[in-house]
Design goal:
Protein name: Kinesin-like protein
InterPro entries: Kinesin-like_fam, Kinesin_motor_CS, Kinesin_motor_dom, Kinesin_motor_dom_sf, P-loop_NTPase
CATH class of the largest domain: Alpha Beta
Coiled coil: 361-429
Number of strands: 19
Family: Belongs to the TRAFAC class myosin-kinesin ATPase superfamily. Kinesin family. KIN-7 subfamily.
Largest sheet: 10 strands, mixed
CATH architecture of the largest domain: 3-Layer(aba) Sandwich
Strand content: 15-25%
Mean pLDDT: 82
Number of helices: 13
Low-confidence stretches: 1-24, 444-448
Structural class: alpha+beta
Helix content: 40-55%
Bound molecules: adenosine-5'-triphosphate
GO molecular function, one term: microtubule binding
Length: 448
């Protein structure tokens, strides 16, 4: 990876043809955070659970009454955007995710997260956001025939701290590795090159079918794992394809549908569901700690390594990526405390800063050319005696210069010692005989 090249830079604009991409310097920006209220569910309505939360503007959500256990806690919370329960997912996408997600076509990594308690609408929201993003990406590709695109797709779930490939029918646990260049990556993860949008739709359905879900008291179809769908887009200007100048922009967009936090007492969970709930809550707790620490200090210790989720998502949390988080909430009074926790998470998240860069990869051909040139230069240096002899004469010249300087230093030191001993003599004379200033001057003058 490196800075975007001059010729290619001129060819490349941002998703809407406006600003020029910002090169390798990166851009510091805060995570875009929005909150989405879902409508009361049938269950909530049936048990007479009233709607407690209200969006009083496009950016502020308030609790209508004080929190039962914390009467002095704030009841108003502001974010980049809040969405009422009657907003459709398209609107949430347009205002809460689109700009960040589509950075991927300009070579900038991006991540869209859904965070919230169980049954608050994360999967509902992320499914729609993924579809809208992919639709816009294919639309963009259709409008930019001057570039050749390659799209790759991979998908994992993290279930009870085990990473699994959602595109593989083998139920094996995948290991995480750290690489100086790639960062943390999943070993042996399948990455499929996409033929078209229908191909991607098929693969997403495979993931849906493979993902661990289970019925809980709070959600008939509750996701019991964290799911990360990753779409990688590589593109090169057709004009430079196969030429030395050709470089490739490469970036990924992650769609992260987290498992929901839950209270065992409210989820009425036991056995396997309870164990899952404990793992889910533990990894979400680490995510919360990471976000809280990042919101305060950037250079202290951040416990990314305490969970697989935060290890994998490290670049999206304060690294080389643009990130948007959509926090989902039930408006029901009975979940007031959980909703407040979601809003506290969202409040910390909006202080976190990421540093996204345009990712440029040299084409294989350009890389091979560069290496061939370097090899040829080294070979010629080895073969050519003239080059050797010129190096030898340079070393000889430097040696002579050093010897000359050492001699000068020696002479200067001798002069200094002589001057010091004369001074000693004179000071003695001054002390003994009160010599006149004139005489002192004459005696101090260096010998010519
Ligand atoms: N904005 C919305 N409008 C209408 N229905 C919604 C909305 N959000 C969620 N729902 C419905 O609420 C139910 C729970 O939603 P969903 O499964 O997306 O929650 P979740 O947060 O992913 O839950 P879990 O963490 O348990 O997997 C689903 O039946 C879904 O269709």
């Amino acid at each position: 990876m490196g800075a975007i090249g001059g010729d290619e830079m001129a060819q490349w604009d941002n998703a809407d043809g406006g600003e020029v991409a910002n090169g390798a310097a990166g851009k510091l920006e805060k995570i875009l955070v929005s909150v989405r209220l879902r409508p009361l569910s049938d269950k909530e309505v049936a048990r007479g659970d009233p709607s407690e939360w209200e969006c009083i503007s496009d950016t502020t959500v308030i609790a209508r009454s004080a929190f039962p256990d914390r009467p002095t806690a704030p009841t108003a919370y502001s974010f980049d955007r809040v969405f009422r329960s009657d907003c459709d997912t398209k609107e949430v996408y347009e205002q809460g995710a689109k700009e960040v997600a589509l950075s991927v076509v300009s070579g900038i990594n991006s991540s869209i997260f859904a965070y919230g308690q169980t049954s608050s609408g994360k999967t509902y929201t992320m499914t729609g956001i993924t579809e809208c993003t992919v639709s816009d990406i294919y639309d963009y590709i259709g409008r930019h025939e001057e570039r050749a695109f390659v799209l790759k797709f991979s998908a994992i779930e993290i279930y009870n701290e085990v990473v699994r490939d959602l595109l593989s029918s083998e139920n094996t646990s995948l290991r995480l590795w750290d690489d100086a260049e790639k960062g943390t990556y999943v070993e042996n993860l399948k990455e499929v090159i996409l033929r078209d949008w229908n191909h991607l739709k098929e693969l997403i359905s495979v993931c849906e079918a493979q993902r661990r879900t289970g019925e809980t008291y709070l959600n008939e179809n509750s996701s019991r794992s964290h799911q990360i769908l990753k779409l990688t887009i590589e593109s090169s200007a057709r004009e430079f394809l196969g030429k030395d100048k050709s470089t490739t922009l490469a970036a990924s967009v992650n769609f992260v549908d987290l498992a929901g936090s839950e209270r065992a007492s409210q989820a009425l969970s036991a056995g396997a569901r309870l164990k899952e709930g404990c793992h889910i809550n533990r990894s979400l707790l680490t995510l919360g700690t990471v976000i809280r620490k990042l919101s305060k200090v950037r250079n202290g210790h951040i416990p990314y390594r305490d969970s697989k989720l935060t290890r994998i998502l490290q670049p999206s949390l304060g690294g080389n990526a643009r990130t948007a988080i959509i926090c989902t909430m039930s408006p029901a009074r009975s979940y007031m405390e959980q909703s407040r926790n979601t809003l506290l998470f969202a409040s910390c998240a909006k202080e976190v800063v990421t540093n996204a860069q345009v990712n440029v990869v040299m084409s294989d051909k350009a890389l091979v050319k560069h290496l061939q040139r370097e090899l040829a230069r080294l070979e010629s240096e080895l073969r050519c005696p003239a080059t050797y002899s010129s190096l030898e004469s340079l070393v000889r010249e430097k040696d002579n210069h050093i010897r000359k300087m050492e001699k000068e230093i020696k002479e200067l030191k001798a002069q200094r010692d002589l001057a010091q001993s004369r001074l000693q003599d004179l000071l003695q004379v001054v002390g003994d005989n009160h010599v006149s200033k004139q005489e002192l001057y004459l005696r101090c003058a260096p010998a010519m």
